Amino acid sequence: MVKFSSRVPADGTDAVGSILKAAADPKIISFAGGLPAPELFPVKEMEAATDQAFEKHGRELMQYGGAKGLPELRQWACQHVAEKENIRCEADNVLITTGSEQALDLVGKALVDPGDVVLVEQPTYLCAVDVFKSYGAKLVSVAMDDDGLRTDALEDVLKKYPEAKLLYTVPNFQNPTGRTIPEERRQRIAELAAQYDLMVLEDNPYGEIRFAGEHVPAIKSFDQDGHVCYMGTFSKTLAPGFRLGWVMATKEMIDKLTVLKQSADLHTDNLAQYATVEYLQANDLAAHVKEISALYGKRKQLMIDGINKYFPDKVKSTDPDGGMFLWVEVPGVDDTIAVFKECLKNNVAFVPGDPFYAGQPQPGTFRLNYSNMAEDQIEVGLKRLGTVLAKYVH
Amino acid sequence: MVKFSSRVPADGTDAVGSILKAAADPKIISFAGGLPAPELFPVKEMEAATDQAFEKHGRELMQYGGAKGLPELRQWACQHVAEKENIRCEADNVLITTGSEQALDLVGKALVDPGDVVLVEQPTYLCAVDVFKSYGAKLVSVAMDDDGLRTDALEDVLKKYPEAKLLYTVPNFQNPTGRTIPEERRQRIAELAAQYDLMVLEDNPYGEIRFAGEHVPAIKSFDQDGHVCYMGTFSKTLAPGFRLGWVMATKEMIDKLTVLKQSADLHTDNLAQYATVEYLQANDLAAHVKEISALYGKRKQLMIDGINKYFPDKVKSTDPDGGMFLWVEVPGVDDTIAVFKECLKNNVAFVPGDPFYAGQPQPGTFRLNYSNMAEDQIEVGLKRLGTVLAKYVH
């Protein structure tokens, strides 16, 4: 028997793994995953970009590279957030990571000692819960409403835990709820971070996939003194399989994250980095993202239509302006897993809300994904879901 | 001021970073790096393999993949170690990692709680020291001789620390010394691991780059009951820039490492994985590795010749049968860094021995790399080195 460290989760705690496995049966219409639509991947363009990368930099891309990532890619990230988010930074403020999941892991490792308080949204991205727990964090949830994280609730929590190290937030089209935090709250989050010397980890994988409404500036754009680390990724705009993300922070923070990055995997794969640089030079990423957004917007609307048509009236759902997920609240349900199992029998699946809560879960909640579902399957799936929900709502 | 966790090294402790920076001046002949020879990278073949991967699996390789890595690659690793090392395993015993550095990090994270004893060779791979320290390990060094890790010393250490969690060893052409552990010692290490319920982390990046002598079976081939985790990599045989490694262990261990892998970066880059699978199908990796070994053997011999010609007689060095490094011991030197600085002034560089020691460093030691140095530069560099060393040896 191996004596695992206290960081390793106990057996049988991989609830989401079991759920995704159960939902993988091809008979099942599964809204459980979190995948982009593969039919929009620019395969030909990326193949051409990879060829270019080999022609121009064959030996460099096969050799060891720098821990911070390709300067061209870090420069691109700076220009990108300058245009999109009004964030001013230089290449030295950027670390390229093996997907933004690694940025989450490195920031957790850099800041969290066992017992340190980390604030998360209620509910929050479930892998963030795993990461922070693996470094011994004491997780404290901050309440949300339809406008995302409530800043009055954040202030209350900070009064109780003024020593809190970190706030993790997904301000745009949050995973799992699809909610977006409005501008005045973002400004307030930046103020509270400065006041309480709190680091904010702003994770923005979905912000560019907007199909309705107006862009809201990043929390980092209100940051005066280095209290916000901003995470970006190519996973939703280009190719999640390439595992390319980045984190933007003060030079001091980036230097420390780089030391940890070297221990984690030395540097991010050069092939994916060089290929992506060539893709960005030869193609119009913004136009590609517009195409993605249009498709997801169409699918989300079909999902909302199906919810209106088939779900009992008392069931509530969010109606996001972008991203990949929406969130459902079914009143009167005590055991969400029982509903999930009943749905599986009816060949439809979702992710039950429980694993998205760092604390006590709100029963009767679940997440639906619409980005990775053929249009003709959405209505069929929601009809099945509605049939099951009708048995639970009285 | 950010309050970093206790895992983050203090400022000014990145000795190796400073050394490599100092040695990067193009005037300097630097034996400090640890890079493969880029002129042997199979750039054309890998470009063709990448095209094949896009043609066959364009959408899959851009989409999210499984945390354990491509089944084809895990299967290949099983066949490879079955043929080379007489290790029997199945794809479920293999996790593909983002370079073998990540395997080191995940095994450290999975096993080491703060205060746990981890045994390392004296001297050892310096990044391993960083990884284990980052999880709070108490590092204990085990003495070596010309035949690598001394098993009598290991037994003494285990009597003193019977609770030791892990032994980290590089049995073939060790980094930094170039030493190789003979078969009977490997068998003894496996016995002691079983007796003391110790996990052995056998790291084998260099074993295939053999230019003299006979292959020695892996420690894992003597493992009866899951006390050895075996690490392999494509970094020295194919392309370090792709960041592709693997770890082989019991299914229980692999399942736990997979949970941690998901928190670390979800999965390893699909582009590099699919391209490598295509490369392995279309090319003869063994023939390519033979070519690498022949070149490194030639360079090592030039280095040995230069040492014999230019170094003072009292200076000792190892004479490896493979790998990329050899190890020099200069008697009578107290301050290796002073020698290093003097060498820089003479436009030649190495890595001083100090950072390779988890405990008290042995003064007057340093590492020389021969894999990444043009033949005509080796003699020139060693002549410069010899001139400086002559001032220190009396």
TrEMBL record, chains A, B:
Highest taxon of source: Bacteria
Keyword flag Transferase: yes
UniProt KW keywords: Aminotransferase, Pyridoxal phosphate, Transferase
Record's signal peptide: none
Aminotransferase class I/classII large domain span: 47-385
Gene3D superfamilies: Aspartate Aminotransferase, domain 1 (3.90.1150.10), Type I PLP-dependent aspartate aminotransferase-like (Major domain) (3.40.640.10)
Cofactor field: pyridoxal 5'-phosphate
InterPro entries assigned to the protein according to its UniProt record, in alphabetical order: Aminotransferase_I/II_large (IPR004839), Class-I_PLP-dep_aminotransf (IPR050859), PyrdxlP-dep_Trfase (IPR015424), PyrdxlP-dep_Trfase_major (IPR015421), PyrdxlP-dep_Trfase_small (IPR015422)
Keyword Cell wall biogenesis/degradation applies: no
GO biological process: alpha-amino acid metabolic process
GO molecular function ontology, one term from the record: transaminase activity
Annotated family: Belongs to the class-I pyridoxal-phosphate-dependent aminotransferase family.
Subunit structure comment from the entry: Homodimer.
Protein name: PLP-dependent aminotransferase family protein
Organism from which the protein derives: Candidatus Limosilactobacillus merdipullorum
Organism phylogeny: Bacteria, Bacillati, Bacillota, Bacilli, Lactobacillales
